[in-house]
Design goal:
Layout: E1 5-6, E2 15-19, E3 25-29, E4 32-41, E5 44-48, H1 52-58, E6 66-76, E7 79-88, H2 99-125, H3 132-145
Parallel strand pairs: 1-5
Antiparallel strand pairs: 2-4, 2-6, 3-4, 4-5, 6-7
C-alpha cells in the first residue's frame, strides 16, 4: 500500500482535489467513523480525512472526478468556527440527471454560486469576521427576489 502524506487544508485557500479511487476506505476509531480518500493535489498524492459533511458530497464522485474544497474560519466570541465549502464539478454521475432538471436548476445554481463567491470575497476583506454561508444565503435571497 502506498504511503501518502496527510492533506491539511489551508484556511481561505481553495484546494482542488482529484479522487484516485472510486470509494474511500472507511472504518471506526476512538474518535468515531472515518473516511480516507486518496487524492491528488497539484500533481502530488495525499491521504485526506474529510468530515462527514464533506464526505457526503465527495461520495458521489468517482475516480478522476474533481472537487474544490475551501476551509473557512471565522471568530465568534472566544470560538474559532470552521466551515467547509465544497464545489463538486461536473462528475460522471451528473450525466444521469434528466436534462430538464439540470436546465431548470441552472439559473438558481448560477445565482447561488455567484453569491458564495461574493460572500468569500466579503469574508476575505473582513479578515474572516463574518460567516460566508449566511452572507451567501442573504445574497441569494435578495438576488432571486429581483
Amino acid at each position: 500500500m502506498t504511503q501518502r502524506t496527510k492533506l491539511e487544508l489551508e484556511i481561505n485557500k481553495p484546494t482542488e482535489l482529484e479522487l484516485l479511487y472510486d470509494e474511500p476506505v472507511t472504518g471506526k476509531s476512538q474518535y468515531g467513523d472515518y473516511f480516507l480518500y486518496a487524492v491528488k493535489v497539484n500533481g502530488s498524492e495525499y491521504s485526506y480525512f474529510p468530515n462527514e459533511e464533506i464526505h457526503e458530497k465527495l461520495k458521489t464522485l468517482r475516480r478522476g472526478d474533481k472537487a474544490v474544497v475551501t476551509k473557512l474560519a471565522s471568530q465568534r466570541g472566544n470560538k474559532l468556527v470552521t466551515v467547509y465549502n465544497v464545489d463538486v464539478g461536473e462528475s460522471s454521475t451528473s450525466d444521469s440527471l434528466p436534462q430538464q432538471t439540470k436546465d431548470s436548476d441552472d439559473r438558481y445554481y448560477s445565482i447561488m454560486l455567484q453569491s458564495y463567491k461574493d460572500a468569500l470575497k466579503i469574508n476575505n476583506e473582513l479578515n474572516g469576521m463574518v460567516d460566508p454561508s449566511k452572507i451567501a444565503v442573504t445574497l441569494f435571497i435578495a438576488r432571486t427576489r429581483e
